[in-house]
C-alpha cells in the first residue's frame, strides 16, 4: 500500500476517543440565529403548560387513581412534580447560559462531549416523535369515545384487526391525519402558532378550573377517610409506582428550553417560564386528582373517561361536554409542544454536522426549518397510525429520563469547569445581555477563573489525593462515580424487599458501601470552588439538587420493563450507525487542521493520482500546517496559489 494511503488511513482510524469527546464551542454571538426571536415570557410559559397539561390529566389520572394509588394519587403527582422540578431547574440554568435550540442535546455537547450529545439528541428525537404520536392516538381515542366507538368499529370492519404484538389492534387513520394537520398548522410561523397554542391552553386551564370548583362543591370526604375507605389503599409503594407513571405527565417542560433560540430575552424568560409552568401544572394535577377521588370512590373510577363519568355519577351531565372541550384543547397543545420541539432538535443536530446537512436549512420567509417539520409530522403520523398508546408511552420514558440525568450531571460539571466562563466571554457580543453580566468576571487574570475547580482552603486535607488534578477534572470524575453507583443502588433496590427487611447481610453491606461512595463523591465535588456569578438564574444548592435529580431519574429508569430496554437498544444501534458512518466525520467541531483534510485539499492531492503522493510531499504539507498556527484557510489558500 502506498505510504500516503497508510498515513491517511492511520489518521482516519486514530483519535476516535478524542473525536467522541470534543465539545461544542459557542459562536461569536450566542444571540444570533436564523430563527425568529419573537416569543415573550407569556408565550413560552403557556407553551410549557400546554405541553404538560394534556393527555396526562384526562387519560392518565383515572388509571393511576384506580389501579395504583387510590386517593394517594395526589401524593404521586406531588412526588413526580418535585422530581421533575429538580430536572427543570437544571434545564432553566442551561437555557440562561446557552440560548440555543436543541435543549439537552446542546447542553451535553458543551459540557460533556459529542458522543453523549448525539446519544441524548437521538433520544430526544425519539421522545418528541413518540410523544406526538401518543397524544395523537389519545386525541383520536377520546373523539371516538364521544361518538360511541364508531370510528374504531368502522375501521375494524374495513381493515380487520392487526394481530402483531407490537402494533395496535387497528390502524388509526384519524391520529395520522391529526399529526399531519397540526404539523401544517405549525408551518404558518412560530408567533402565529404560539398565539393559537396560548388560546387553547387558556381554554384548557379554564375547564380545569371549572372541574376543580364543581368537584370540590360535590365532594364527599368519606371517599378518602372512612371505616371502609382508605386514603392509601395500595400503601406507600402504590404512591411510588403511581409517581413513576405520573412522571410522564410532566415531560413537556423541555419544550421551554427548546424555545430559547426563539425567545426575545432567554436569560429571563426561560427560568421564569420554567418555574411558573411547573408550579401551575403540579397544582392543577393535584387539585383535579383530589376533586376526582372526592367525587367517586377510587374503585368506581372509569379508567378511560374518568372525569366525565365522575360528574355523571353526581348528576352533573353538562360537565361532560365541558371536560371534552378541555381534553381536546389540552391534547392539542401537548401535540403542538412535541411537534414544536422535534424539528428544532433536528435543526440543532444538523447545524452541528451530526445529522444530514439539509436538515439544517431554515426557510427565509417563515424562519422555520420547514423540511424538518414535514419529516417530523410524517414520521409521527406513521407511528400514530400503527402503534398502541400504552406501548408508545413506555418506549418514550427511557429517552426522557436519560436526557434529564445527563443534563443534571452537566450542570455540576459546568459549575466547576473554569474554561466554560472563559469560553462565554469570547462567545458574547459587547451589546448582548449575556456579555454584560459576564464580561467583568472572565478576564484572563480573574481570581474566579483561577479558583474555579480548585480545592477550597478548608478542604486542604484532600490535597495529597486531589491536589495534582487539573481544575474541574476531579469534579467530573466524581460525577461519573456518583452516577454509576446511583445506578447500582437503584438496581439493588429492586431486590425483593424481604431481603432488606430481614437484614440479609450482603444487601445491607452493599447498600452501605454504595451510599458511602456516593456521599464521598458529593464531598469531593463540594470541596471545590464553583463559579455561578454572572448568571441570571442558577440552580440552588449545587451539587446536591442536581445529584438528587440524577438519583430520582435513575430510580424511575430501573422501573421500566425489559422489553422497553430492548427497544431502546435497537434504536441506539440505528443511532450509532448514523453517528459513526456520518456524524463523526461531518461534525463542525471536528479538527479543522486534520492532516487528512489538508492532504485532500492540497494541490498535491488534486494534481497527482491517488497513491502517488510521496512521503516528502506529505511532510511538506504537515510542515506548512505547523507553521500556519492552526489556520486551515491560510494553508489551503497558500497551496492553491502555488
From TrEMBL:
The keyword DNA damage appears for this protein: no
Domain spans labelled Cationic amino acid transporter C-terminal: 537-587
Keyword Coiled coil: no
Protein's membrane topology: Multi-pass membrane protein
Gene3D superfamilies found in the cross-reference section: Amino acid/polyamine transporter I
Residue stretches spanning the membrane: 41-61, 73-92, 104-125, 173-190, 199-219, 231-251, 272-298, 318-340, 370-389, 395-416, 474-496, 502-527, 539-558, 564-582
GO cellular component: plasma membrane
Keywords from the named record: Membrane, Transmembrane, Transmembrane helix, Transport
Subcellular location, record wording: Membrane
InterPro entries: AA/rel_permease1, CAT_C
Pfam families assigned: AA_permease_2, AA_permease_C
Top-level taxon: Eukaryota
One annotated GO molecular function: amino acid transmembrane transporter activity
PANTHER family assigned to the protein according to its UniProt record, in alphabetical order: CATIONIC AMINO ACID TRANSPORTER 4, INNER MEMBRANE TRANSPORTER YGJI-RELATED
Protein's UniProt name: Cationic amino acid transporter C-terminal domain-containing protein
Amino acid at each position: 500500500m502506498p505510504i500516503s494511503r497508510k498515513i491517511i488511513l492511520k489518521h482516519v482510524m486514530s483519535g476516535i476517543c478524542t473525536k467522541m469527546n470534543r465539545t461544542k464551542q459557542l459562536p461569536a454571538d450566542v444571540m444570533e440565529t436564523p430563527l425568529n426571536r419573537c416569543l415573550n415570557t407569556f408565550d413560552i410559559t403557556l407553551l410549557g403548560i400546554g405541553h404538560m397539561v394534556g393527555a396526562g390529566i384526562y387519560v392518565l389520572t383515572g388509571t393511576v387513581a384506580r389501579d395504583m394509588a387510590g386517593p394517594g394519587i395526589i401524593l404521586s403527582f406531588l412526588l413526580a412534580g418535585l422530581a421533575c422540578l429538580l430536572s427543570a431547574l437544571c434545564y432553566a440554568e442551561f437555557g440562561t447560559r446557552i440560548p440555543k435550540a436543541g435543549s439537552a442535546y446542546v447542553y451535553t455537547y458543551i459540557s460533556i462531549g459529542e458522543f453523549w450529545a448525539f446519544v441524548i439528541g437521538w433520544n430526544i428525537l425519539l421522545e418528541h416523535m413518540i410523544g406526538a404520536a401518543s397524544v395523537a392516538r389519545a386525541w383520536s381515542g377520546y373523539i371516538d369515545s364521544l361518538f360511541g366507538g364508531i370510528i374504531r368499529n368502522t375501521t375494524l370492519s374495513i381493515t380487520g384487526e392487526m394481530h402483531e404484538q407490537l402494533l395496535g389492534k387497528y390502524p388509526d387513520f384519524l391520529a395520522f391525519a391529526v399529526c399531519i394537520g397540526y404539523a401544517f398548522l405549525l408551518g404558518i410561523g412560530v408567533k402565529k402558532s404560539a398565539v393559537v397554542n396560548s388560546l387553547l391552553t387558556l381554554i384548557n386551564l379554564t375547564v380545569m378550573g371549572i372541574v376543580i370548583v364543581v368537584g370540590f362543591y360535590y365532594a364527599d370526604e368519606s371517599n378518602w377517610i372512612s371505616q371502609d375507605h382508605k386514603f392509601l389503599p395500595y400503601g406507600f409503594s402504590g404512591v411510588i409506582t403511581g409517581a413513576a407513571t405520573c412522571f410522564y405527565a410532566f415531560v413537556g417542560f423541555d419544550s421551554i428550553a427548546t424555545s430559547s433560540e426563539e425567545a426575545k430575552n432567554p436569560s429571563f424568560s426561560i427560568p421564569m417560564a420554567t418555574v411558573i409552568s411547573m408550579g401551575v401544572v403540579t397544582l392543577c394535577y393535584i387539585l383535579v386528582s383530589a376533586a376526582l377521588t372526592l367525587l367517586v370512590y377510587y374503585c368506581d373510577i372509569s379508567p378511560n373517561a374518568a372525569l366525565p363519568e365522575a360528574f355523571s355519577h353526581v348528576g352533573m351531565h353538562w360537565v361532560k361536554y365541558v371536560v371534552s372541550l378541555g381534553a381536546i384543547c389540552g391534547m392539542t397543545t401537548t401535540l403542538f409542544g412535541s411537534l414544536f420541539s422535534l424539528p428544532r432538535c433536528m435543526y440543532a443536530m444538523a447545524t452541528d454536522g451530526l445529522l444530514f446537512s439539509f436538515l439544517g436549512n431554515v426557510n427565509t420567509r417563515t424562519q422555520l426549518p420547514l423540511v424538518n417539520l414535514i419529516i417530523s409530522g410524517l414520521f409521527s403520523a406513521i407511528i400514530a397510525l400503527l402503534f398502541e398508546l400504552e406501548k408508545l408511552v413506555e418506549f418514550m420514558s427511557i429517552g426522557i429520563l436519560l436526557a434529564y440525568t445527563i443534563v443534571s450531571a452537566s450542570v455540576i460539571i459546568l459549575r466547576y469547569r473554569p474554561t466554560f466562563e472563559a469560553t462565554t466571554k469570547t462567545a458574547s457580543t459587547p451589546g448582548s445581555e449575556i456579555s454584560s453580566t459576564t464580561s467583568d468576571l472572565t478576564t484572563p487574570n480573574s481570581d474566579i477563573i483561577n479558583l474555579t475547580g480548585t480545592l477550597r482552603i478548608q478542604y486542604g486535607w484532600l490535597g495529597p489525593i486531589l491536589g495534582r488534578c487539573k481544575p474541574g477534572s476531579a469534579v467530573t470524575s466524581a460525577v461519573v462515580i456518583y452516577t454509576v453507583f446511583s445506578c447500582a443502588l437503584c438496581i439493588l433496590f429492586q431486590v425483593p424487599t424481604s431481603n432488606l427487611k430481614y437484614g440479609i447481610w450482603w444487601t445491607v453491606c452493599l447498600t452501605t458501601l454504595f451510599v458511602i461512595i456516593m456521599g464521598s463523591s458529593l464531598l469531593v465535588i463540594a470541596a471545590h470552588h464553583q463559579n455561578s456569578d454572572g448568571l441570571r438564574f442558577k440552580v440552588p444548592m449545587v451539587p446536591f439538587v442536581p445529584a438528587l435529580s440524577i438519583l430520582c431519574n435513575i430510580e424511575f429508569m430501573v422501573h421500566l420493563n425489559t422489553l422497553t430496554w430492548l427497544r431502546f437498544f435497537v434504536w441506539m444501534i440505528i443511532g450509532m450507525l448514523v453517528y459513526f458512518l456520518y456524524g463523526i466525520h461531518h461534525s463542525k467541531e471536528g479538527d479543522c487542521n486534520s492532516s487528512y483534510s489538508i492532504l485532500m485539499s492540497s494541490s498535491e492531492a488534486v494534481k497527482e493520482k491517488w497513491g502517488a503522493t510521496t512521503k516528502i510531499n506529505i511532510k511538506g504539507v504537515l510542515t506548512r500546517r505547523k507553521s500556519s498556527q492552526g489556520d486551515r484557510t491560510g494553508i489551503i489558500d497558500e497551496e492553491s496559489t502555488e
